[in-house]
Structures are given as C-alpha cells and as structure tokens.
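SUBJECT: protein chain
CONTENTS: sequence, structure tokens:
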Amino acid sequence: MAGGPMLSGGGGGRRGAVGQTAAVLNLLTDLAFNILIFFVVLASSEPEKGRPQKVPSANKDKATDNQPQNIEVTLTRTTVAVNGTNVPVDDVAAKLKPLLAGKTKPEDRIVVVRVAPGSKDTPYQHWIRVTGQVERAGGVVTVQLEEEQTVGVK
C-alpha cells in the first residue's frame, strides 16, 4: 500500500510539469511579441516636421561684424591719439564727434581711454582734460588702467 500512492503520484507530477512549462513559454512568447510590436510601431512612425529654425553659425567673421568697435584714445605724457592717429588735445572732441555720430545706445558710444605702453608718467590733469573732451563729444568714458601682457622666456 505504501508503494501505490507513490506510483500514481509520480505519473501525475510529470503531466503537471509539462503544463507549467507550456504556461511559462506562453507568457514569454506573449512578452516577446509585445516587445516586437512596440519596436515595430516605434520605428515605423514618421519623424515630426516641426517648425524650421535658424541655428546661428560659428563663423567668427560674422560675429565681429555685428559687434561695434570701441573708439580708443591713447595718452602719453604730452600727446593724444584717437584710434592710432595723433590729435592735438584741444581737437579731441572735434575728432570724436563724427565717429560717435548715429550711435544712440550708451554701449555703442564707449570710448576707451588708456595710457600708451611704456608711458606710465601721464599727468592727472592730462587725463581730466582728455576725458572731459570725450564727454563733450558725447562719448561714454571707460578707463583702461592695466593691460595683460604675456611674457615669453627664452
């Protein structure tokens, strides 16, 4: 009697294992089919047109054309140069007025006043006189006190 239930239980166990394996395979097949359909639908959709956009180029030439150049006034102990051209101190305003004509924004009317390289002994009165001329011409004075220099060692 002890052997009877064991024999009948052994046969029934095999059929149950086959049924469970078929159920697991059925679930995996359904999952694989759903994933396949998902990627097919995803790949077959047309890309959206969207609205056209203009992307700015990285061309340096165009970028420098749009930026206004600042006027430079360079001072030495006795002379004044506007954009590299020597001008008498009393004529600085007359020289700057045509250069500043048509510029309405303050950031466009910037005039950089700096000391010429190697000329560190410019008198304070000279600075005041020239910056007054720049303001009378309608410029916005920006003083450049120091300039970075790179020193090479040989």
Summary: The helical segments are 3-44, 60-66, 92-100, 124-136. The CA atoms of residues 78 and 122 lie 8 Å apart.
